[in-house]
Description:
Blueprint: E1 12-14, H1 17-26, H2 29-35, E2 37-39, H3 42-74, H4 93-108, E3 112-113, H5 117-126, E4 134-135, H6 137-146, H7 152-164, H8 174-177
Parallel strand pairs: 1-2, 3-4
Amino acid sequence: LKEEKILPCKQKVQIEYSTLKTFANLGTLKQLCDFYNIYISSGSNDENTQIIRGVNQQNEAIDKYYELWEYLKNDSKVEFIRVNKEKDDVADIDIEKALLGTMLTKQQNCPLLADDRVLQALVLNEFSDESFPAFGTDALIVGLLQSKKLSSKDSLDSLLKLMGWRYRFIVMPPELLKE
């Protein structure tokens, strides 16, 4: 077996990002930095910055998720309801999860607020005689505007944000087009 040669201590060494991650995961990054003078490419630094930014965005999303559910759990106007399934209801668990909103709408005999146009269509077909069996965030924003619970500026900003998130089929109210 041929003996591996390594550079002597305190030599200058260019190390790629993936190798740095390996040493960090092994818990030996400090020893590596003590042994060599490390050079890191700007590309590796950019990659690390992007990863950190991505992790920070994920952490923000997780924080918002917990904040949302804490708010809902502590609001006395929010009621968590179990869907009562009948034997002939959907057997496939993934399809069942997707249809929970429609099942609950039917069970509670109340409108569905959902941005999924397919779910809206299912409920609209089932409850065609109702005035508002299903609607989306865009319709709620317009309703809040019309009832003066949301200003024109806030309504416009919200609808434009939805459009920026690629919400389809939003019809902008004429009064907001003037803004």
